[in-house]
Amino acid sequence: MTNQTKDIPSPAAVPCWEGLRKLIVQDCYKSGDRLPSERELAQRLKVGRPAIREAIKALSILEIVESRPGAGTFVRSASSVSLHWPEAKHVNLAFDMLQLLEVRKMIEPQAAALCAMRGSLQQISELERYLVAEETDLTDPSAIARSDYLFHDVIIRSAGNSILDDIVNFLSPLLVHSRQLTASTAPDFKRMAREHRAIFESIRRGQPDLAAQAMTEHLRTVGLDLVVARDEMITSAGVEGFADLTPSHSPRG
Question: Around 135, how many Cα atoms within 13 Å sit in the side-chain half-sphere?
C-alpha cells in the first residue's frame, strides 16, 4: 500500500462505492490491508459517513472488503477490485426494480438449466456453501443479501457462457444494489431459503428442466414481494432507487 493522499472526486453520477473501489485501486491496497476509518474515507470521497457505510456494505456483498468488529474494514480480495468491473458512467442506480426483475427472468432460469448441465463439482460445492450460509442465519438482512447475491451469481457463472458473464458483470452494480434495497423487505426469508434449496437440489441432481422451473417460480415470488413492498418503499425517506419503481411511461405494475 502506498501513502498516496490524493482525493477522489465524487460527482453525483458516480456511486460512492465506485469511488471507494477506485480509492482501493489508486492507493494500491492489497488483500488483508486495513482501510482508513469511515471519517477519513468520507473526507476523501467528499460524502457523508452513512454513504461510506452503504458503500462498504455493497463491496462486502461482492467479497471485496470485509468489516471486522472492533478492528475496522479490510480488503478481502484485491483481485476482485478491478476484475471485469463495469465503468460507473454506464450504470444508473436510479433504476426500475421491476424492469431489472424482467431482465433476470430472461437470464436466470436458462442459466440455472445450463448450470445443472455444465456446473463443475467445485462450483456446485460453492453454491451449496452460500445456500447453507443463508439457511444458517435467517435473521441478519445484510448477511442474507450477501448470500442471496452470491448464490445467484455462482449459478450464472457456472452456466459456462463468457458472453453471459460479460452481461452480468455489467449488471452487477444493479444486482448488488437491488439486494441492499430488498433485504429488509422480504416477508419470508425461510421461504426464500426453501426456494433456493429447490433450485440447488435440481442443479445438484443434473435436472436442467426442473432447475429452470424452480428458478422461474422463485423469481415470480420475488416479483410479488416487490409489488407488495412497492408503496412502502417508494414513500420511505432516504430509500433511493424505488422512486421510479412504477414510472409513468410503463403500463406494468
Answer: 13
CA-CA distance, 70 to 74, in Å (whole number)?
A: 12
**Pairing relation of β-strands 65-68 and 72-75?**
antiparallel
CB neighbours of 251 closer than 8 A, spacing ≥ 6? Answer: none
Q: What is the CA 79 to chain-centroid distance, rounded? A: 18
Per-residue cell: 93: 442506480
d(CA 130, CA 101): 21
CATH 1.10.10.10 in the chain: give the residue spans.
16-82
CA nearest 15: which of 76, 78, 92?
92
Residue 158: CA count within 13 A, CB half-sphere: 30
The per-residue pLDDT for 5 is 40
- Give the gyration radius of the chain's Cα atoms: 18
In CATH terms, the superfamily for domain 92-235 is GntR ligand-binding domain-like (1.20.120.530)
φ and ψ at 226, to 5 degrees?
-65, -45
Grid cell listed for 127: 453454491
Separation of alpha carbons 210 and 189, rounded Å: 22
Range(s) of the chain covered by CATH 1.20.120.530: 92-235
Length of the chain: 253
**Three-state DSSP class for residue 29:** coil
Give the global pTM.
Answer: 0.63
Question: Residue 62: pLDDT band by 50, 70, 90 thresholds?
Answer: low
pLDDT in tens, 161-196: 999 998 988 888 888 878 877 676 666 889 999 999
Protein fold of 16-82 = Arc Repressor Mutant, subunit A (1.10.10)
